[in-house]
Amino acid sequence: MDIIPYDEARKIWHRISRTTEDLDLPVQAELHKRFMNIFQVGNYYHYIFNCVSGEIEYADEKIRNVLGYAPDEFNVELLISKIHPDDLPHFLNFENEVTDFFNKLRAEQVLKYKVRYDYRIQTKHGNYIRLLQQVITIQSDDDGAVLRTMGVHTDITYLKPDGAPQLSFIGLEGEPSYHDVAAKKVYTPAREILTRREKEILAYMAQGYKSPEISAQLNISTQTVTTHRKNMLGKTATGSAAELVMTALKEGWI
What are the C-alpha distances in Å from 4 to residues 1, 42, 88, 115, 188? Predict the structure, then answer.
């Protein structure tokens, strides 16, 4: 991907905040609690995001239970760097779609919408989980520019172990909702690390097939299978078939 994701995200957020001035809003626990009933929560944490600076101003202690990080470790750069490579374009495209959506709302509607979408993210322990991200605006100006938001990240891996990320706008106080919104594809996925054939072989390896068995299944020579396996070890910087399969499962390649 020929972009720097964090820089691109900040450009998007500046479009929705429409200002670069410093903001003054105390971060208080009571403020967070007021909005918790808007979210469906399981294993979750909440945070405050400043759209003007593009920074996370607050993350609560429950982040340790979800991602393994301490609140003071958590920032936007870390978040974006840990999103699954295949889901990062979805994240950026969704944020771009959110900005377009909110910039078309009347000022009085801005506080009446919840944004909801999901993506996979790597925890501090190295495994991937699927987060449901739900966000509402908690501060806007008289013109409807979004200045601060509060979000909740919920681990929904057990509910949605696979499938493509989905974006929805949930109307509050009688506003209409829009589900499974098709976001414009402004950002595209990075080049695949493995070829289609390598992924086929890897899928059989994950099921415990040996090279001769894989060659029979795919109607190719055992030597060809062996060559593909060596190439995959080199591409992924793994030292064994077991490590390759484990890495592939963590990264979502198969």
Answer: 8, 32, 11, 24, 13
